[in-house]
Amino acid sequence: MALDQSFVGRSYPPTDPYEVGREKIREFAVAVGDANPVYTDPEAAKGYGYPDVIAPPTFVFAITFAAAGQVVEDPQLGLDYSRVVHGDQKFAYARPVRAGDRLSVTSTIEAVKSLAGNDIIDIRGEVHDETGEHVVTAWTKLVSRAPEEA
Amino acid sequence: MAAQIQYADVEVGTELPAASFSVTRATLVRYAGASGDFNPIHWNEKFAKEVGLPDVIAHGMFTMAEAIRVVTDWVGDPGAVVEYGVRFTKPVVVPNDERGGLIEVTAKVAAKLEDNRVRVDLTAMSAGQKVLGMSRAVVALA
Q: Would you list the domain boundaries of chain A?
């Protein structure tokens, strides 16, 4: 069933802050096998001009995707999450995410389309730190695939 | 920002050092924990096949994280990446053996932009198929 076009432009309340921890960044860097010391060594990070270790570019997805759950699970929207695949992902960074950040995300539905029975939804997540500074914008395209013919 | 590559030293067509990244079932379990994405298609072969996949597949976000390493390893400071986007075109299939799957990434400078920025276009292949489409990053160089 086609999704309701009237959801385009809808924004959801900012999420409670997610506190970025050094050890969580380390865990992520190890998981992707990336030994860049700027992710684990505060002194190396300072050498690049950062106050603490920074996170790999895609780290923030875990935070923005959790926030997008407000949209995905909105019962009024009615997305069939069991059929959802991740279509596109894009980030635009004002600065890197770093340890000690307390980040909140404001999710907005940018587009809703139906194409060949697939429901496609574009969600923009604006990520701000505790001082209100913009850190990164994440665009996530989700595709809810059409059920197979019975 | 402290990029180690000079804007003046690159041209359109400059190739970045290519890299390959292996991904085994153990890699996926570790990434699931680190990212909080526990979708069973990334660790449960029976489930993956039931939903029509050839086998367990890597998280798209894992593939995206590996691909950008060609850029961050080149430029030194990962904070020099100011934009990064991909389309997930094909899954990276991860067989249940020691070798697992392989993600092969190449990249080149596609455009020189203002403010010492360049656009880098990435190609990520696995098992002979392009797994990321429209894969682009904008990087601020020194």
A: 5-21+56-144
Which residue in the set A48, A61, A92 is minimally distant from B83, CB to CB? A92
ipTM attached to this prediction: 0.96
CB atoms within 10 A of CB B51: 11
Kindly report the pTM of this predicted structure. Answer: 0.95
Kindly list the structural domains of chain B, giving each domain's residue range(s) and its CATH number in brackets, ordered by start.
Answer: 14-22+58-140 (3.10.129.10)
Mean pLDDT in runs of 10 for chain B (142 residues)?
85 98 98 96 95 94 98 97 98 96 98 98 98 97 96
A48 with B88: Cβ contact below 8 A: no
Task: Write the pLDDT tens digit of every residue in B74-98.
Answer: 999 999 999 999 999 999 999 999 9
Handedness of CA A22, A28, A30, A36 (dihedral sign): negative
**Per-residue pLDDT tens digits for A62-103:** 999 999 999 988 888 888 877 888 999 999 999 999 999 999
CATH number of A5-21+56-144: 3.10.129.10
pLDDT band of A150, cuts 50, 70, 90: very low
Secondary structure (H, E, C), chain B: CCCCCCHHHCCCCCECCCEEEEECHHHHHHHHHHHCCCCHHHCCHHHHHHCCCCCCECCHHHHHHHHCHHHHHHHCCHHHEEEEEEEECCCCECCCCCCCEEEEEEEEEEEECCCCEEEEEEEEEECCEEEEEEEEEEEECC
Q: Give the separation between CA A122 and CA A143, rounded to whole angstroms.
A: 9
CA distance B12 to chain A (A): 22
Indicate which of A25, A41, A48, A58 best probes the interface with B, i.e. most B CBs within 10 Å of its own CB: A58
